[in-house]
Amino acid sequence: MSKKTYQQSTEEIMLQVGSQFNGLSEKEASKRLEENGLNQLKEKPKKSSFQLFIETFKDAMVIILLIVAVIQLLMGAHVESIVIFAVLLLNSFVSVIQTKKAEGSLDALKSLSAPDANVFREGKEKVVLAKELVVGDVVLLEAGDYIPADGRLLEVGSLKVDEGMLTGESVPVEKNLASINQTVPIGDQNNMVFSGTIVTYGRGRFVVTATGNDTEIGQVADLLEGTVEQKTPLQRGLDSFSKKLSLAILALSLVILGVQIFRILVHGGSGDMTADLLNAFMFAVAVAVAAIPEALQSIVTIVLSIGTKNMAKKQAIIRQLPAVETLGATSVVCTDKTGTLTQNKMTVMAYYLPNDKEEEVTDPNKWTSDFKQLMTISLLANDAAITETGEKIGDPTEIAFLDYSEKLTQPYREIRELYPRLQELPFDSDRKLMSTLHYMSEEHLLLTKGGPDIVLERSNRILVDGKVELLTEDMRMKIQEQNEAFSNRALRVLAFAYRPLENRSLVLEDEQELIFVGLMAMIDPPREEVKQAVSDARDAGIKTVMITGDHKTTAVAIAKEIGISTEGDLAFTGVELDALSEDELKENLERISVYARVSPENKIRIVRAWQEKGHVSAMTGDGVNDAPALKQADIGIAMGTGTDVAKDASAMILTDDNFASIISAVKVGRNVFDNIKKAIAYLFAGNLGAIIAILFALLMGWDNPFTALQLLFINLVNDSLPAIALGMEKAEPTIMKRAPRNPNEGIFSGNTLTSVTYRGLLIGLAVIIAQYLGMAQSPELGVAMAFSTLIWSRTLQTLPARSNSQTALKAGLFSNKMVMIAIVVCSSLYGVTLIPGIRQIFSIPTNFSLNEIIISVALAISATVLMEVTKLGIKAVKRINQKTQVNPINE
User: Fold this and answer.
1) pTM of structure
2) Helices in 701-816 by DSSP H: which ranges?
3) Distances (CA, A) of 363 to 366, 372, 415
4) DSSP assignments along 593-642, one per residue
5) CA nearest neighbour of 853 among 830, 835, 820
6) C-beta of residue 605 within 8 angstroms of C-beta of residue 582
7) What is the C-alpha separation between 206 and 547, in angstroms, rounded?
8) What's the pLDDT at 347?
9) DSSP secondary structure, 546-568, as one string
10) Residue 622 annotated to the active site
């Protein structure tokens, strides 16, 4: 097995890329550029807007509507066909716009590329366009530079690089030149630099080993291009239902047409064969129009939009509408640690001084001399600063010391003004120390901070209760034990020491024979509200999994503290995960609560593993490395402070980067899905009532009870407002105490189908009675009364449609004012159909009067009351059954 780039020596790398320390020649660079292409990301061609538009017509229900519209056009029913075409076009345009909005992840990746680079060509330093870099180029780096390509470091000078966009780590990585023998993740490849990351400190020189799509960021781009966005559970449910409904409608329409033609051939019809066949066709078309809820797609979109507004109040911005209801089905949340579960702010959690109790004293005048010395060193051997506007500049660890001092009411500027820096020995990743020189207490003191092992090794004395003593082996062991105790709590530890100096010219040899002062321990602490949010998620049947680029020890410690990791749970690093087979991963998946030091490929694999088990997965992230997994997940959740790449690959953005906001959004998502089901059930119950009336008329040999225009008016105009109003119902009190719904369950799961069928039967019965009463005078009046009763029944059905378990009175008649407004508006719209000139369009004869209206309204009210009374009966039966189970009769 060949060595990876970070495992080879610099000599091997230079030989492999065919370069030297002073760079390539211009001729060789030009040749390589021509052979390998520009150093930029390549993308596959995207579908045009026209292609996307055509694809919207592949839906089964859309095809049926197109057939209906064409038939009506051929038969001269121009108004009806135009209305259907208009609805289909509107839905297609909305779909194309949403799809186009979702594109852009790769564009955002490209924007991360550096515009130019400082390189060595023929031994001379020059600036070239970053896209013209080639493998073998030697690039110079300074603080603030974007790294333009992947490469192996040849030279470092206190070099630190922010690789958070690739690894998720909040702390810049210290770079070195050492070869690495074992296999390690990107975050531990400290002798490498990667395209798109930023130099935060120091300088360096590297040889380019990969450009364009061969870089780590290029591999992320390939993953993004190859990742197919998942359809939401609602989309899958509607697609499946749409196909089944379309086949049923087609079959029913053909049967009805066949029955009609058979009757004409056997009984001879009216004598006018053409007119009879035309009527037969119109009967079959009426069934199709009655069965298809033409406004369904628009109503679902509107209800989802209402959900997005509610989610925005919970700090969640929805980029793709279907994501609203997906949250309601979410059963696994894979979350990043830094900034989402934690504060993304290194914080001093503890300190250690020999023979000194740890006690935070907020009055600096009451500090012990040892603690004062510890604080002084932490503030002076420190390059961080806080500007007048509150902006914090510098290494997060050093900023933590400034914050700690301010918390203890000791302004750090006072200390720095009192003891100005005279000289310094900057931090170096090899020696792991930083020292500064100051004039204090009438002498020059060298103040040092660094890794505990290094500082302790270089110390021979110790400060105890204000006195300097020899550092004994017992003391040394005690300090090491305390350092280990801090490390076991996943705290990052630094040691502090000092020594008097006679000379004022600092050299590295001065960092010897130090006086040990103490330790300070830091961590990026959890957000206060996260522990409760994780508990709430568990109550709602949602598993929380931490996926982070941080170290395993730190990740597990945080996970245990906030309740993500419990007794018996497992934790894996990316390397350990790679060693697992698919079967082993599936076997352990539900016990793994923490993944650390992971790669983008690892994240996608974890998300897919949960999806293959039938779970709806949410994935949070903020870096470029998160983008492929965000796209793969059922719902990708980007952080508001994250990269544009992550945001473009996500379906939702958290403006406050807070895990607790995800759980709040889940509650909204569950309520949105409940309300969509109520709206869909409302639409189909009304449509079922119309179909029942049509089929009964067919069997009895009556005239078709409705015209196609009447049905389109009800489906598109009258039913829309009540359905939208149902989308505004408040959440049930127990909504976050139930398990997530099964993503594979149908739209009419549970008792929804029973409710739709029952309400549809009552509506159909009311319409049949109305048509029968009207036919006593004339067939035309029978049709008018059927239409009138159907429109009133469907409008008043809004009240029982609000809940399958509660009556409208129990839920509160005015708890959803939009329902009452919708009923009033629909009543007014019905009045419009009775206006002279318009009533003829809706086939309402002149002898249709107030008496017929009263009969229609009475029949509709009767059906509505029966719907509500039945709920009370079912509830009473359940109550009796529960009592019987609790208090069984002794035989």
Assistant:
1) 0.69
2) 708-713, 720-726, 752-775, 779-796, 798-801, 808-811
3) 6, 11, 15
4) EEEES--HHHHHHHHHHHHHTT--EEEEE-SGGGHHHHHHSSEEEEETTS
5) 830
6) no
7) 31
8) 93
9) EE-SS-HHHHHHHHHHHTSS-TT
10) no
Dump the DSSP string for 303-342: HHHHHHHHHHTTTEEESSTTHHHHHHH--EEEE-STTTTB
Cβ atoms within 10 Å of 279's Cβ, excluding its own: 17
Strand duo 116-121 + 138-142: pairing: antiparallel
**Residue 166 half-sphere exposure, CB side, CA atoms within 13 Å?**
27
Spot the catalytic one: 145, 150, 276, 336.
336
Q: Using CA atoms, how far apart are residues 233 and 300, in angstroms rounded to an integer?
A: 14
Query: Which residue ranges in the chain fall short of pLDDT 50?
Result: 1, 102, 104-106, 109-110, 889-891
The whole-number pLDDT of residue 306 equals 82
Query: Which residues, other chains included, contact 58 with Cβ-Cβ below 8 Å and sequence gap of 6+?
Result: none
Q: What is the number of other CB atoms lying within 10 angstroms of the CB of residue 860?
A: 25
Is the separation of the CB atoms in 79 and 40 below 8 Å?
Answer: no
Burial class (CB in 10 A: 0-12, 13-18, 19+), 316: buried
The rounded distance, in Å, linking the Cα atoms of 112 and 623 is 12
At 29, give phi and psi (nearest 5°).
-65, -45
The predicted structure's pLDDT at residue 109: 46
Which of left, alpha, beta for 465 (phi over 0: left; psi -120 to 50: alpha)?
Answer: left
Among 211, 43, 186, CA closest to 117: 211
Angle between helices 396-407 and 369-380 in degrees, nearest 10? 140
Q: What is the pLDDT of residue 890?
A: 45
The angle formed by the CA atoms of residues 522, 524 and 526, to the nearest 5 degrees, is: 125
The DSSP letter of residue 843 is T
